[in-house]
Amino acid sequence: MDKMNFKIAEDDFEIFYKENTQSTNIDVRKMAENGAKEGTVVIADSQTGGKGTRGRSFSSPKGTGLYMSLLLRPELEFSKALSITCAASVAVCRAIEQISGEKVYIKWVNDIYSEDNKKLCGILTEAVLNDDNCSVKYAVLGIGINVFEPDGGFSDEIKDIAGAVFKNEEKNDELKQKLTKCVLKEFWRLYEKLLKGTFLEEYRQRSCILGKKIDVIKDNLKKSAVALEINDDFSLKVRFSDGSEETLYSGDVSIKKITKN
Asked: What is the pLDDT of residue 10?
């Protein structure tokens, strides 16, 4: 792996670059077990086994996306680990808007969507617990952004869902590097104050599902609901069509129209 360092604010990130890898999350997890420091980053130009939530594959074609994983060693209870993903969601939104000028939204809990209803980014946080099974030993934050459209377009499997941050720009490393630095900078600002929840209101404001009809997908079953509110711990309160209510801490939700009113 090629290695580079750069400083964001007062924080050093040690960045390792790979042309191709199975998964940057797997790479960083191995490095964490070998004592790598917080702020270690692996970026790949392509992945053969990129992962999304619930074990799904994450399409990672060469030269078109930002596939990045960051090692974190927070003093954090596992019950609050969801805040890492939510902080990253806000950071990615800020970065995309700053670099591209395009407005984007968060689909709870970890997907970033464009105004034309296309998924631009998926985020996956994997936490490893200490021996007490209550606190986080370390976490690997994986971020996958579709920066450019692949030659020939997205695969048939995802072409109706996926979109790119830059639709009409030619592929170039400079734009991707700018986006990478901006994501890390914005995330670190939020991560330093993670437990203060300073980004909670912004996360809520960026949500594209609140007050909307959604489908909740759990255990391969789909139930119609309305998204009522995002709680202070970033869980989602929903009301099902039978009038019952539930608080979701994980799982998938889908919505036909992503854009806000």
From this structure: 46
Dihedral (C-alpha) 147, 150, 153, 154: value to the nearest 10 degrees?
-70
Stated pTM of the model? 0.91
CATH topology of domain 2-205: BirA Bifunctional Protein; domain 2 (3.30.930)
SS3 187: helix
Amino acid at 182: C
The residue among 254, 229, 230, 227 whose CA lies nearest residue 240 is 227
CA 26 – CA 67 distance, rounded (Å): 12
pLDDT at 231 over 80: yes
Q: How far apart are the first and last CA of the chain?
A: 46
Q: What's the CA gap between 195 and 212, in Å, rounded?
A: 28
Beta strands (DSSP E) in the chain are: 2-8, 11-18, 40-44, 65-72, 104-107, 111-114, 119-129, 136-146, 213-218, 221-230, 236-240, 245-248, 252-254
pLDDT-based confidence at residue 12 (cuts at 50, 70, 90): confident
Whole-angstrom distance, CA of residue 247 vs CA of residue 229: 9
Name the residue ranges covered by the structural domains of the chain: 2-205, 208-254
CATH fit for domain 208-254, picks 3.40.50.300, 2.30.30.100, 1.10.630.10, 3.40.250.10: 2.30.30.100
pLDDT in tens, 16-32: 999 999 999 999 999 99
Query: Rounded to 5 degrees, what are φ and ψ at 44?
Result: -125, 150
Q: 59 forms bridges with which residues in the sheet?
A: none
**CA dihedral (56, 60, 61, 65) positive or negative:** positive
Same fold? 2-205, 208-254: no
